[in-house]
């Protein structure tokens, strides 16, 4: 997708207001420097008032007005929330929980993703919308559905059951294949026909893990089918208009790597909690993920809040300067858009206390002013558009492994993929080592350093990929409970972690999870001491050296953290969850040894730094001060302020929550 | 309702015992000084054994025996808990939760309030009871249903859905009115027909707030319709016998102000927890509410426990003297009755461990003795009957605002109306400033001081009422998040709190709820320091002066508590929840400035004092020592002990948990 | 059941593996000294692939192979988990929760115990299995079902409702009997026909306690009927092969005393948590219960984990030596078997992380070695087989009383039967006083000392039994809230605890539960001080002396713990839950006074000691060191090490987690 200017603006819902307000909307958009409006995300009930009755008038007029005022439109397919009449005519389109509770209209996203009735109605609507607006001058981008998986990511109804059976039949061919894959010889679960198979509804005891895993795959696929049905319609009408759907941050129910293949441009909704002091690290992770999903191409920050949201227990506003800082964080990590939900704050409905560009009190407000100021700044940065961010390091993650890791009936049941990912990502962020988030089957040869947090599930291809990466010179850090099961959650026999025993030079004989709230000492080979939590294990060395041993408890003196040279590379292994200091030291050393280079070494703590480079080699250094105090930061020689154009000298002072974009020729 | 003596006694359930026990009951009632028995609350299954079969014999004999022994009867309509045969013949009368779970017989109150089948059966039964006992000499009072809303206050079944649609059609006329009121343009919720509307059953995401609010109104009304159907029957048969239903303390699901209009006398069930040290303050609030609901007329303490209840996690008995103290608390705040649940402790059933006047061990027990002693005392206080309590202050509350305040999707979701009410009420109780609890649309001109805790929802009439109150000289304290939405939970546009911006002289630009467990400093203009919790906000002064500013955090230095002279009155505003000391100091100063006068200034802490005044001007001062140690209390000159008749002198010593009723001529 | 050698081995599930693995299984069994394999527990879906299709081939071959290698078989009836095709053909066989949620296949035990369809299919299968294998040379023991009540112990479906009505009709004869028993005069619950009665499905308020109690009895009986239907079939085919089902530890839903009558040998599954430091005391309780259930005859440890389990939040392995120690604990308390779940660790399925004799990594592992070593040791102890353990003390427990005790609507709702039992059992364990766990209606004359923890429900027979026990010289300690209700949860009138007032010499006038987390002081008559938690009460002495009084609070100075000589015996009463020290001192003194003798006085703390005695008088002293350090232990003269045969001298040192079996001639 090519942009002439930053996509700046956001969700615009004129249907919530009398048309008399719209002219004022246009004027305020102009003052705020808005270039793009997302229209119609929840428009279905407004444009289709019954199976055969439509009213597109308001939408025509809104789009015309936007076009007239030079605002581009990201046009939604309006299928995210079906109108009440559909639920009344077809209650079987409503989703059902594992316990059998039907979910009703009154919120949003109340549809069974597998429902043929829902899909028919959705496709027919999209057909109509695409036909109507294919040539509209404001149209820039198609927005399919909305935040797939946000509220309803699985449905256990009979319609879904039928679809699940079909999906399984396609995957396994015959029921013997299913029995083998699901290990149904255990607990008398052998199927004699696909007709007997059901979604993992509430069971008396521990559910079958492979059934659960496949149901999560199926559920992601069922939603993706909805997306693709709509995309096909749009493509037919507008082959040149890019298509996207807005991905949430780390939505467990949606396999982003699978979905990303079908997006013309990656777009993302980001809602960090201002009450959390270190939330920007998790945000950085998500932004890196979005960039990686698009293969490094610029992505779109499709939604963020101008200030507070409305759906947490306590909803803090963004403090002065915080919205600007966090917007530039997206740009710094590859976004060519800064878009908000929403333009004018709703008077009623579930999100009337969600902030907006134009608050209840109108434009004479801090929030409106900060948005408008940012709009003016972004207009001065057209050169940044399309530039790229390069990463030396990669963090591997895989949705199937995530689903399997967090299932029941494990040595420890509170393993969290997100926690593990962030525990490994944070030291890299602190060290300003730019990191991609990539699928473990991806080509890793471009990375100097790879971290593998709790990659529980690996198939043979992935195992081979990682081994080859190290053999040919890569440096890799893998944490415990990786490489344990295959794609159907069946243990790789022969001692843990069977696929990586040789690579790592260890044999894990037994998992030894610590008691809840328990900890174990770590004696490091450099004389330091640390602490492990959550997990320990009985490791036998088979070629590795111990970098740390457990100190105290049943495993006292046995290896806890190991290192092995393998081929031309190095493989580290962590048999516990080390404290943050030990983790940080370890990863920094390993990264340095690997040759992964920090951006702007010497910047003070709490200052995030990334680099975007244009095709012609111009570099933009983004310096983001997350501290609530000012700090001095060294600047490379020859740098200028990309917004003001002034020379920066050798050092600048970043205000609290301050931002500097240094242009390097 | 006119009484010759205190209504003293309580629930009498002779159907639980062989008739051979009843003569002993009469003898024990005599010894305890019992004047009134409530009969038949759960009698339905005992008097009606099938659709067409009845057995009133036991009830006839019980009422005759009571009449013979001079005990008046509060006769229940027996409709609180339908018999099992009704559920078997008509399972559709059973209520259904929002999740779709049907609630079955085995407890009590298992009926859908909207069920026409339930209503027909109830009305037919009441018709039969009213006809049978209309002229019974023991009959004093009708008791309709029981504790409406205690266990089942809402029903989401299809029958309720139909009734809800009818209620909405009457309220809004057409579906466009509904769409406007419910802001259905948000999230694609627009209805094209009332047929599509449902109760707010389980939804995937945040439910529509206006739908929820209307459903709570409808649910209170549906129960009220049940009450009124029965009342109409009773009125037809016994136009002169008063009718009541026993209201719980602060039952969220029942709009007391609406219900009170239909009661001939207000009656109340009070079950404080002896394990909670300050429970008497909440009890005082409830008693003041009951008095206020009846327009200041005496009310009836219809139920309390003689000692322990059975339904908390740990059920403490009332300590020696505590039952007496708390009984006089009711009288002190306007009750002309002291009634208990129940007379004889049940041998079996769900409440066999609920205390009773006659315990399992019989009358040679502490509990029976304390009841009988109190009965003898009350017999010496006939002059108190019918006397009134006068209040200088009022605390405003409104059920619609309560429902709306505690809904989801607010800046902070743990706002509690009861907590807010008590935080404002407690300082007044401590200062012995008698306070009425009144609806915000009521005439406020009789009050010198009005407090408005978190009155989130206000319509134009209420806004005008409060403004006029201050303009004409009233003093008012309003706390944050008041005046935010209209009657359909739609924000009053134009800056918060739009209806009160001028009155208060402030503009709240943004809500700034504190993090969970967080706090913010308060710097008071008098040099003191305090702490705010739960909430803060960005206040712009527009005519008010700051009495306190925030100290620390993003809002440091901005106004936190304000004061404005407006017309002939004064309006205070609280932008946070101050600590108890700050709140107490503020309210005491403001009340004093307003001219709200304490009853008996100079009494020690922990001693509650109220005054009842007869028509002829005799005053009774109730002094209640909630401390567990004795304290000296000053007494007005000329006072005598209303029970013993002795002169009190200048000062008396109140025993731990002691009570004194001082008669002032 | 007669054994030639310890039953050593466990669950063997060859159906989970290719037959090519089976020869290796046989070789590993030989190396581990395995004598018995449990086959087919979850075999249903493997042997019956549809209503009329069977495949017993794999089972034939497995049993033949085991026979060939000299391994006996405990053959399961395979009915514990029905195959998916049954659920599809007969969804009405699936169980339903009180809330109405159906439980689906995917785990195990998904059947309604009352379902005639399930029962017909189960009986037909057992008929076929019994016929096929009645004469198989490997067959040693029948294993019916599996861990009854583990996941599904109650079902609330319409089929269960019908069965419940039949059970009630048989129990009460007519509906008047039911009404009387269930106290239905309370809350209008009177039934006019059994047709109106339902299981205690979700109710709006407190459920009827007698209905709940009878439903728990019915549910235990419904499962027992399943067991007996299968047992009848087996008995017809193999009158001489013993029958058992594996009982869990303290399964609340299964009345062990009722079930034990129908077992030819008691068998037990034991899964202590290695993370809990004192779990061996609870384990000892369960082992004593199993021995007592079998009337003192040897029992079988049917299942334990070789190391970790998979179903806790954090699953710790058994540390080196711990499995051996805990295995001998079972033998020490009367087991003639040490069996494990399972032989080879599953590759897939819900329990793939449950340890096994042969781990994922194979036999070159700590776990396999420790099992094999133990097998070799046990082979040297044939003389122990069939020997008995004698107990001086008894602890009384009754499932009906347990069910009733832990119901809602009590003075305190967090009363726990298991906690109470263990609080009374632990001091006896610490004092090495061997204790049987017996039903309160049992003959107690053989015991010197009886403890009665919270025996809430007692009928007249039990009351008479306990009184007679003390009258004729027994010593008894009873704790609070005992003797309160009859068999239908109706209070014994006349002052608590009515049946025992004379025996104990006390009258409890009021229960006075402490606030949550509250405590009360105890002043002991010997000058010591202690603390009570959970409960206190207002005790009037009527012949007893106070051993302790409450110190502080409303009951300060009133009796807390009492003692009375009654007839030739002594009765103690505890009106609170004393701290562990006070409890220990009290019980040790009382036991000593009663003449209950410790096994091996003088052994250090943390060392468990029991004695098994053969018919010819040979005694085996089991010394088990639960400490994680070595301790010296005195040994009786003439003792030899039963395994090595060496003389032990006067004192031995037990290693950390060490075991010694001393043979005394």
TrEMBL record, chains A, B, C:
It catalyses: Hydrolysis of terminal non-reducing beta-D-galactose residues in beta-D-galactosides. Its EC number is 3.2.1.23. This is Beta-galactosidase. Keywords: Glycosidase, Hydrolase, Metal-binding, Zinc. Signal peptide: none annotated. Transmembrane segments: none annotated. The lineage of its organism: Bacteria, Bacillati, Actinomycetota, Actinomycetes, Pseudonocardiales. Substrate binds at residues 108, 146, 311. GO terms for biological process: galactose metabolic process. It comes from Allokutzneria albata. GO terms for cellular component: beta-galactosidase complex. Zn(2+) binds at residues 112, 155, 157.
